[in-house]
């Protein structure tokens, strides 16, 4: 399970080991303090995405936890980001600016 923490990072918990934190998996590079931005994992389990408080969409490599790219997705908080399960090259985001966007 990937969770957003209030100290500007994503942390991972192993749900099969009593929700034990996986310390090797720590994703940094987004500003989320005070916001409940929802992260998501790509259907092929290779990438992690999350919105942030600055309106950015952030993409990391799952294996290395390296930040790959970040771009401005919304004016204001990008509160949720999700991969389309059947069209894996597409991501949907929503923001506090009232917009829902489809990215390819």
TrEMBL record:
Q: Does the keyword Transmembrane apply?
A: no
This entry carries the following GO cellular component terms, namely: catalytic step 2 spliceosome
Q: Does the keyword Cytoplasm apply?
A: no
Residues in WD repeats: 42-70, 71-104
Instruction: Set out the biological process GO terms recorded for this chain's protein.
Output: mRNA splicing, via spliceosome
Family annotation (PROSITE patterns): WD_REPEATS_2, WD_REPEATS_REGION
Write out the entry's keywords from A to Z: WD repeat
Matching InterPro entries, A to Z? PRPF17, WD40/YVTN_repeat-like_dom_sf, WD40_repeat_dom_sf, WD40_rpt
Query: Under the GO molecular function aspect, what terms does this record hold?
Result: mRNA binding
Instruction: Give the Pfam families listed for this entry.
Output: WD40
Q: What is this protein called in UniProt?
A: Uncharacterized protein
Q: Which organism is it from?
A: Protopolystoma xenopodis
The opening ranks of the lineage are: Eukaryota, Metazoa, Spiralia, Lophotrochozoa, Platyhelminthes
């Amino acid at each position: 399970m990937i969770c957003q923490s209030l100290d500007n990072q994503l942390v991972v918990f192993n749900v099969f080991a009593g929700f034990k934190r996986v310390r090797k998996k720590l994703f940094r590079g987004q500003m989320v303090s005070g916001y409940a931005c929802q992260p998501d994992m790509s259907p092929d389990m290779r990438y992690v995405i999350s919105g942030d408080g600055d309106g950015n969409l952030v993409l990391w490599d799952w294996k290395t936890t390296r930040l790959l790219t970040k771009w401005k997705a919304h004016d204001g908080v990008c509160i949720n980001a999700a991969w389309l399960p059947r069209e894996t090259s597409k991501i949907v985001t929503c923001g506090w600016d009232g917009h829902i966007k489809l990215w390819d």
